[in-house]
Design a protein that fits this description.
The chain is an alpha/beta fold. It is built from 9 helices and 12 strands. It starts with 18 loop residues before the first strand and ends with a helix.
Length: 291
Amino acid sequence: MQLTTSKAPAPKQDDLAGAGLGLRRALLSPLADQRPKQISFLEVAPENWINVGGGYARKFCSLLETYPLVCHGLSLSIGSPAPLDETYLQQLKGFLNQHQVKLYSEHLSYCSDDGHLYDLMPIPFTEEAVHYVASRIHRVQDILERKLIIENVSYYAAPAQEMDEIDFINAVLEEADCELLLDVNNIYVNSINHHYDAEEFLYSLPTDRVNYFHIAGHYKEAEDLRIDTHAAPVIDPVWKLLEKAYAHFGPVPTLLERDFNIPPLAELLTEVDQIIALQDTRQKKQGTAHA
């Protein structure tokens, strides 16, 4: 595949559109050298870049001259029983302000109590948890002075469940008055693991709170078990669900996640191109409908 480059100024975050790519350190040099124009924005976990210096920092800042940046956190632990780490939140705020990052998302889960668990644990789907999480989201938004975008997560157990997953997510969004990062792969994975209809779930989410999409690959452990790995190409049923999501929500900005088994950049760009093709098809259909 021919890599194309662009030295045009990066678009503003307010105009976020198209297809993005998760920035991993293995991709720093290829992206810095080639600047593929198919990519409209980059996403990083801020924890991996706060206080980073040297050559990594120079290449990172150089990329921000071409691409707008969004941040997707790993350690906020919004559902944790432990107090919010407000020292970290102040560091995060400084990083977001330094790089003019307006979009910050996190997982609707928890990963710490007395120390970090290094995994994303499911929050119990209960009314008590809705109120607890919503109050913590309000506090985060007050500190960061920007909306928090929460992501629907994959999970493999539902402890103390009193509500359906969809009702829990919608209740948190409403009470916290925050926004949603809709992970299409997570809906597909959860629909198989927890035996629900993926399209029905998708259509039950509020269109006015969706900010952007994630799409990724996963591992088929068994016919009734999928593991969310971000370590493989996106499969056809997930592409089809993404197409359904565009039909319902419009051609929302969409980020390709690949965290492990990272292939050459050209291979990732074939998936980025597939995102763009689906967005363009939906855009044309919308244009025809409005003509």
